[in-house]
Amino acid sequence: MKTLKYFVIGALMIGFAAPAVAQEDHSAVIKQITNVIKSKAPNVESEVKNVVKANKKNADVLTAIGRAYFDVRDLDKAATYADMAVKRDKTYGDAYVLMGDIQVLKDDGGAASSWFEQAIYFDPKNPEGYRRYAQINSKTSPSASIAKLEDLRAQRPDYPVDIIAAEIYHSASKDNPSLIDKAIQYYDKVDKSKMEASNLVNYSLDHFLKGNFEKSLSISEYGNQKFARNAALNRLTFFNHTNLKNYDKALEYADRLFNKSDSAKISSSDYLYYGYAYLGNDQYDNAIEMYTKSLNAEESKESDRIDALKNISTAYQKKGDINNAVATYDKYLKAKPQVTAADMGSLATMWQQHARSLEGDEKVEALGKADAVWAEIAEKFPSVAHVAYNNRARIAVSLDPESAEGKAKPYYEKVAQLLADKTDRSANETKYLVEAYHYLGAYYTIVVNDKEQGDIYWRKMLDIDPENATAKTALGLDE
Q1: pLDDT at residue 141, as a whole number
Q2: Can you tell me whether residue 230 is helix, strand or coil?
């Protein structure tokens, strides 16, 4: 059992905790002896003995002594005074809660649950037993935890059950993402003005993880108004604006995260999102700087490193720096655990797009590099070979626009060979095949002046596209 996680969840609830039903007011005595125990003064034992002697009938004081020892991790003494409190007043729920907390620190979840259930049984209007039970069982059985909280609602309609239920489901969703919807349902029931910063962070985060960026943003921006220097809320607003392509606002909140937040621990993902925002805002040099920082961050995740490399390449490409774009993209391909045909296709497309801005030999060279990538794709990824050959054909057409040399012919013939007899041909594949037949029909009819051979391809076109006007005209069927 994750002891620390349990107490962290408990801390998140503190803003919503209602006091247990009190007996007499012994707050002054409790505060005094608690301070003595936590100070670890030399006379602590005698001080405790005197307080116990004067309050041996007061379960709240005995429990407070036990709680103070618990806080300094003297679990034996904590248990001793909790036991004394239970024996003095078996209906005092906080004593059972302390017993349960002791078992939590001993990593005995079963014993802890048992003590919390006793707290509920003997002191049914005290929320602490319900709350602790729900928290300790939140990972193994979130539904049972929430059911126990609904029992509390019946006993104490005034108690903020919904926020505790929301936090329990939020915590449990880390192991079971399907529970995020449950967390959101409970958060939706709570007045945001009564939420602590941590509640607003989790509420916004759950919507973010679901891809509900508008809703997540509305929550995080509400939190920004109350907790302007909260790093997590500033981060969420920054990320949400970036995902929504509000790049100016994203950069504003990036600055708030990096420079105007308390205790902000900047991660590789933060630099990555800063890069996204700069790239979206056409500030390419700044984007490259941030992506590079993401690459070099001390705890940079491998997925972030791969993403950063790809985006650095994109930024260089948008700058018109093809050499750095390609060099970085090569690093991206080498860093990826598994390179796809689409990954390689992007590299080929990069060269083709660059070729559009060139003339003469430089253009021919750029198109040649694109063609070489498509050739490699055809070899490595047979399932998309028709796409690769189609692109090789189009490159050949751009180098031989009048088809005088028939440079595209072998590639279109390959497309036809791959797709003509395919029984489960998709709509896109049919378009590739029509394109191939169109080129081959025109090539033989016009360039080679072999109408008989050309008509073969025009008829093939009509077989798969009966209303094709070009094929009908070529065959004289439109008269």
Answers
A1: 86
A2: strand
Structural tokens at position 173: 């969703």
Put simply, whether the predicted model's pTM sits higher than 0.90 gets the answer: no
Helix (H) or strand (E) holding 220: helix 213-226
Cβ contact 128:93 at 8 Å? yes
Under the banding of pLDDT at 50, 70 and 90, the label for residue 22 is: very low
116, 6 contact by CB (below 8 A): no
Q: How far is CA 25 from CA 50, 53, 59, in A?
A: 18, 17, 12
Residues 6+ apart with CB under 8 A from 299: 267, 268
DSSP alpha helix (H) spans, 320-426: 322-335, 341-355, 360-380, 385-399, 409-419
- Cβ–Cβ < 8 Å for 135, 120: no
Q: CA-CA distance, 230 to 248, in Å (whole number)?
A: 20
Angstrom distance (rounded) from CA 375 to CA 74: 72
**What token pair was written down for 330?**
């090569």
Tokens 């057409």 identify what position?
A: 397
Q: Classify the phi-psi angles of 42: left when phi > 0, otherwise alpha if psi is within -120 to 50, otherwise beta.
A: alpha
Query: How many Cβ atoms from other residues are within 10 Å of residue 361's Cβ?
Result: 8
**Cα–Cα distances in Å, from 176 out to 133, 144, 150?**
20, 15, 22
Residue 413 has pLDDT above 70, yes or no: yes
**CB distance 177 to 209 below 8 Å:** yes
138 and 164 Cβ atoms separated by less than 8 Å: no
Q: What distance in Å separates the CA atoms of residue 290 and residue 423, rounded to the nearest whole number?
A: 49
- Name the token pair of 381: 């990824």
Q: Tell me: the pLDDT tens digits for 24-53?
A: 678 888 898 899 889 888 888 999 999 999
β-bridge mates for residue 262, sequence order: 230
Backbone angles phi, psi at 406, to 5 degrees: 60, 35
